[in-house]
């Protein structure tokens, strides 16, 4: 069988939640086109309420779309819902622990739900990959939060899907565990699994994803490689540590000046319009003594803020 070029293809995807007595109709997705290439680690980024979970729930078969088409691994979710669902594993945001099962039992039950024959189950390998071999026969309620989360990833992988979706995988997870999960995601990806993740953490998307889509108010506002997204901004900043503390940021128009919590003055400029010299001249002209200074390149946060705040408020 030839492999599909794209792991996921959504075209004109619309989701409208009907009005209720207390809430108006909500257009959560307004005609989303998203193509997720096979083999990528794809980040879906956006502020709260952007429509990320709605998109993922449609992929997972948990929410019905209003209009548009979706293919998972080349399988249309309307025409071949079972085949489409077999191609995807979803790790939900909330930890739903089966308190009465051990991790081994939990994986077996899940494999049973997906109709994976006993001989083809990879329970031990999954437990080992998730660092849960020691806890294979402990009750799930005895596991730490991090272990439970790893068990959720293992559960999503029991049927060996070529596409793995992680909804906010590291929300509320400590730094060490976050790195462990990233390492595992990268390992899976090297083994050929296409990974889609939603995240609030720009750092996470920057570290892990080769391609990023930014969603805002139900629309895709950017979708490109992480490097090109970062390269899109010609903004840089000069960071000045003032000789004497400043109470407020001086007006350095046309440059934008902000004070950081540590007292540093951050002046951003467009490289096409000005250089460091002009920024420094403006800082000096405002009477600020310069104790120290450095420049900063834009990070994903700048791109994100620029793309999600520039849009006019939707009607
Ligand atoms: P995100 O995951 O990016 O935070 P969601 O997909 O959860 O965004 O939500 C998108 C919009 O749809 C939000 O305005 C949210 O309030 C609304 N929404 C989500 N789920 C429902 C639902 N079951 N019923 C009505 N509105 C919903």
Description of the molecule:
Strand 4 and strand 5 (75-76) form a beta hairpin. The strands form three sheets. This protein has a six-stranded mixed beta sheet, with helices on both faces. Among the domains are: 6-87 and 161-230, Rossmann fold; 235-297, 2-Layer Sandwich (Alpha-Beta Plaits), CATH 3.30.70.100. It starts with 5 loop residues before the first strand and ends in a 6-residue tail after the last helix. With 315 residues, it is an alpha/beta fold. The protein contains ten helices and 14 strands. Helix content is 30%, strand content 29%. Helix 3 runs parallel beside helix 5. It has helices at residues 52-59, 81-86, 103-113, 123-129, 145-156, 175-190, 202-208, 226-231, 276-285, 300-309, and strands spanning 6-17, 26-37, 41-45, 67-72, 75-76, 88-91, 163-167, 194-199, 211-216, 219-225, 235-242, 256-259, 265-270, 290-296. The chain binds adenosine-5'-diphosphate (ADP). The site of adenosine-5'-diphosphate (ADP) has 11 residues, from strand 2 and helix 1. Adenosine-5'-diphosphate binds at residues 17, 26, 28, 46, 48-54.
């Amino acid at each position: 069988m030839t492999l599909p070029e794209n792991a996921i293809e959504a075209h004109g995807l619309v989701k409208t939640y009907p009005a209720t007595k207390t809430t108006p109709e909500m257009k959560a997705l307004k005609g989303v086109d998203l193509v997720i290439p096979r083999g990528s680690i794809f980040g879906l980024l956006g502020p709260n309420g952007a429509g990320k979970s709605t998109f993922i729930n449609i992929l997972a078969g948990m929410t019905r779309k209003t209009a548009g088409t979706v293919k998972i691994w080349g399988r249309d979710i309307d025409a071949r819902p079972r085949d489409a669902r077999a191609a995807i594993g979803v790790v939900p945001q909330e930890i739903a622990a089966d308190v009465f099962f051990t991790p081994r039992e939990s994986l077996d039950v899940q494999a049973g739900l997906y109709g994976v024959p006993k001989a083809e189950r990879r329970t031990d390998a999954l437990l080992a990959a998730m660092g849960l071999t020691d806890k294979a026969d402990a009750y799930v309620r005895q596991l730490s939060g991090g272990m439970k989360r790893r068990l959720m990833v293992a559960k999503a992988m029991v049927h060996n899907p070529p596409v793995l979706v992680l909804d906010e995988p590291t929300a509320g997870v400590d730094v060490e565990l976050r790195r462990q999960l990233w390492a595992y995601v990268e390992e899976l990806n090297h083994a050929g699994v296409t990974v889609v993740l939603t995240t609030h953490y720009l750092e996470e998307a920057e570290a892990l994803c080769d391609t990023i889509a930014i969603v805002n108010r139900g629309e895709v506002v950017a979708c490109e490689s992480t490097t090109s997204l970062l390269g899109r901004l010609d903004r840089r900043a000069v960071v000045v540590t003032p000789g004497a503390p400043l109470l407020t940021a001086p007006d350095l128009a046309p440059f934008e000046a902000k004070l950081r919590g540590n007292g540093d003055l951050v002046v951003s400029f467009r490289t096409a319009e000005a250089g460091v010299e002009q920024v420094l001249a403006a800082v000096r002209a405002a009477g600020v003594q310069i104790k120290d200074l450095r420049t900063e390149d834009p990070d994903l946060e700048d791109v994100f803020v620029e793309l999600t705040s520039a849009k006019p408020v939707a009607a």
